[in-house]
Amino acid sequence: MSSETSTAVLRYSAFTPEGAGGNPAGIVLDAAGLDPTRMLALAAEVGYSETAFVMARDDAERRFRVRYFSPLVEVPFCGHATVATAVALAERNGPGEFVFDTPAGEIPVSTAADPDGTVRATLTSVPTRSRPATPDELTPALAALRWAEGDLDPELPPHVAFGGAEHLVLAVASRARLADLAYDFDGLADVMRQHGWTTLQLVWREADDLFHVRDPFPVGGVVEDPATGAAAAAFGGYLRTLGLVREPMTLTLHQGEDMGCPSELLVDIDPTDPRVRVTGRARPIGDPH
């Protein structure tokens, strides 16, 4: 008997640009009776990059305690599963403001319905931070990616950025380099585990407010994430740290294009605020079982 038989699992795709694409997430709205072993097993059975588990809920106060599991490990924060969970709650409780208490900290989430009925969610990250990557971090990461330092954009230096979880940010000089991603899965996973990174945020800058991104996630048992809200928040903090945000701005991140799962993430950054806001749509998807 599938463990899902006795545990209701919703499936939503988050950061869908026009009702298609996006990154699927599992959602368990009543996980109070589940222990970590069961949650990890359930996340592995669902098979998505993350499943969100609502451990405690106060519907009157619209406050929820949430944990996130990939098929292999628990992660402190997951943006796309946060957006998906908030949309699922808004469809049941009505749009408005929610607060998620996560292992990474308090995450306010605002939801609203678009004219076509699709619900959009905006999460506000914990305070972001970013620092230059060290040679001991960069060299093995590039080797596992099978990239060279000459592939990188010298105007956007490698950093380790945080927006609820840590991500190595690498900017490449060409869209062709970003499209050619054939990395050493086990080797990169080893490097990431050594340094505590959740994903790599690989980016190419098309314009100051438009980036194309890819996110390998081998530590979670996933080759690549088609939309990564936590990394988007960290990336916003990275640009702020570099001094590239001189006034409030909104970035558009296109992700998942090279996987056939196009996704769109809107990232609002204020130079005076270390918190970053990430917005996307989510929609229910069918149960594959």
UniProtKB/TrEMBL annotation:
GO molecular-function term, one example from the UniProt record: isomerase activity
Keywords: Isomerase
Record bears the keyword Transcription: no
Residues at the active site: 50
Cited InterPro entries: Phenazine_PhzF-like
GO CC annotation: cytoplasm
Pfam families referenced in this protein's UniProt entry, alphabetically: PhzC-PhzF
Family as reported in the entry's similarity comment: Belongs to the PhzF family.
NCBIfam families recorded: PhzF_family
Record protein name field: Oxidoreductase
